[in-house]
Amino acid sequence: MKKRILSGMRPTGPLHLGHLVGALNNWLRLQNEYECFFMVADWHALMSEYENPKDLKENTLNNVVDWLASGIDPGKSTIFIQSHIKEHLELYMAFSLITPLGWLERCPTYKEQLREIKNRNLSTYGFLGYPVLQAADILLYKADSVPVGEDQLPHLELAREIAKRFNSLYKKDIFPQPKALLTKTARLLGLDGRKMSKSYNNYVALSDKPQVIRGKIMSMFTDPLRIKLTDLGHPQKCNVYNYYVIFAPERKNETDKLCRSASIGCTDCKRELGKILIKFLEPIQEKRENLLKNRKQIYDILKQGEEKARKIAKVTISEVKDSLKLNL
Ligand code: SF4
User: Which protein residues are within 6 Å of ligand 1, measured from CB?
Assistant: First the structure.
């Protein structure tokens, strides 16, 4: 029997190349080896976007479309929207009862985000409980593993602790200890050299039109030591070059040579990269267009995924309610 994994994305904006390289390509591999549950984490999105949820619906739909267009196969993977399965919140509540406050207050990502995100008020009860909802997401499906990056490890550790505490408090072996599936993915920085993120507005969206991609790529930072056309370049210090490595590996040696010998200018080099990315995104965008023309197909896929997810969620919640003496 295949091992089960759960993973999700917060629908806070359009999916971009960073999502594709960092998560989606990994999902594509995983769906052939594991029983995959992929969730649009809309409740999680609201934990930081609660003041302004106007784009949530559209982002949710667009995220699903991007997943499908990138090759996530509903025949292999279960795709669903978190808020449509009410059992997530039931388990979140049960876990909230047993999670000591100190575990949450010590969470490094919580402290970091409170420090770094200044344009939103995150001093809320919900935001503190973010990892508890994550634990509920994972454990509701009794996932064996969770694909995570290093930065998410503390959250997974917390989920394991919560699972252990529940099992020990109610003397039942309901929840497994999900393992981290650490995957090395290529690191794609944003156009300005910082982490690619919607908040920094430094991304290329999977749905960006060719002229938008061209403009964005031309705005990219390059080798800071190359000021004049005749200056020899240092491709290893150039973010544009890193894009070649990831999206056109067959061109990386040639670009390296041209750059080091100053045989190509940065403008031409970026123009070429623009063309490469436009071509690279073409098939994804074509599939996107087709999917959006037939929205019923998307809703059907979600309905199917939700039915499958709900069936498993209901069994877990019934076990939890038994333990808490909530089932009459
Ligand atoms: S030529 Fe290309 S790789 Fe070299 S510094 Fe300019 S943009 Fe970067």
Answer: 222-223, 226, 233, 235, 238, 240-241, 255, 259, 264, 266, 269-270
